[in-house]
Amino acid sequence: MDNHRNSELNMYEKILARWPSKDPTPPSPQSPLPRPNQINCDRSHRFYDLCTINGPTVLDPVNSTLYLSAPTNSTTVEKIRPYPRKWEKPIMAGIQEFTLISNSKSPLCQAQHKLPAIVFSAAGYTGNFFHDFNDGFIPLFITVNSVFPDNQDFILVISQAQNWWISKYGDLLHTYSKHPVIIPENETSTHCFPSATLGLISHGFMTIDPKLMPNSQALTHFHAFLDKAYNHGQNHPWKSNPPKPRARLVLATRNGGVGRVISNQNEVKHLAEEIGFDVIIFEPIPQTPLQQAYALINSSHAMVGVHGAGLTHSLFLRPGVVFMQVVPIGADWLAEVCFANSARAMGLEYLEYRIGAEESSLIDKYGKNSLLIKDPATFRGQNWSSATMDIYLKEQNVKIDLIRFREYLKEAYKKAKEFMEKEGVS
């Protein structure tokens, strides 16, 4: 568990030079449905494979095999590792491989289910908050709405899922499917389904492409899904506050030796309070209950933080709320693909504060004339090594220029108050 929790840098290990910029053959919602009693695998995408068994299916969890238990015209054997990062060979090597077989004698059914199964893995980078959503829950949302666009019920079969992970995301998993999750590694009995889908569809980093969705769903629909899981229609705490509440700013913080810490955080907090914000320090840890985190983030009017996995909580912000990402030296591209694009897609008021050389702790060690300070793109080249990433993501802390940052906070405050006026709480 600790290996997962301390793995934030895994978010960057392979993606920078090897993440495909575009899938040349995106999934088509108009693709013809497979005929009954068939096994089909679509391997045309760079990000993922997707296999379906369109007919009665028997899962033998002991040997990770799914049998099409109806006769077909031909014998088929397919294999899949159901995790949407197939370009990362080292990571995919740790994903449990499933075998799909037709025209083979299947084992007897011991647990009969009337609903189809969606099978995927919770290994790989799962356990890192960013990857839980980027590689897990967003692709699952895409897959569910692509495979079952008419809200058909289904059962989740999640390979390699840890008990703590199932517990942490229990509310969200239950919103996908009200039925108990099946973890094959914990089972010895065979399970039978009317059909099965293996794999998760990904549209890229933290994104849902409405053009590829049968019902044109977007990230805003995913946010509504999260609201269903964690808000349950409850009123926001600020609605019962005094008649003129202060705009609430959540300052997402980082501590310890993880890098990208705001070294003058107290001064930043006081500056935001001086401008007019009610500031709440938010330091997410793996044990933070997600319903508690959602209530805080979703009831705020602004969120500010240095680029890092904790900013994945921006998915909890309401459309129209201010989200300001502080971008360290060397993290421009990451900031854009991980959080800036998703913020705009969700309708947030996105602001970006890119630090200068004098605000980076790297200048003390390497000097302001160092190439890694003056031109990070040239310094790192086309492939980020672990040593290079350690410099930009672990060694680097931030001391924000309060004079320059004041103007950004003033703009954030203005937009936050405008949001509150629209909501009728100013």
TrEMBL record:
<dbReference type="InterPro" id="IPR049625">
    <property type="entry name" value="Glyco_transf_61_cat"/>
</dbReference>
<keyword id="KW-0328">Glycosyltransferase</keyword>
<dbReference type="GO" id="GO:0000139">
    <property type="term" value="C:Golgi membrane"/>
</dbReference>
<dbReference type="Pfam" id="PF04577">
    <property type="entry name" value="Glyco_transf_61"/>
</dbReference>
<dbReference type="GO" id="GO:0016757">
    <property type="term" value="F:glycosyltransferase activity"/>
</dbReference>
<dbReference type="GO" id="GO:0016763">
    <property type="term" value="F:pentosyltransferase activity"/>
</dbReference>
<protein>
    <recommendedName>
        <fullName>Glycosyltransferase 61 catalytic domain-containing protein</fullName>
    </recommendedName>
</protein>
<keyword id="KW-0325">Glycoprotein</keyword>
<feature type="domain" description="Glycosyltransferase 61 catalytic">
    <location>
        <begin position="220"/>
        <end position="322"/>
    </location>
</feature>
<dbReference type="InterPro" id="IPR007657">
    <property type="entry name" value="Glycosyltransferase_61"/>
</dbReference>
<keyword id="KW-0808">Transferase</keyword>
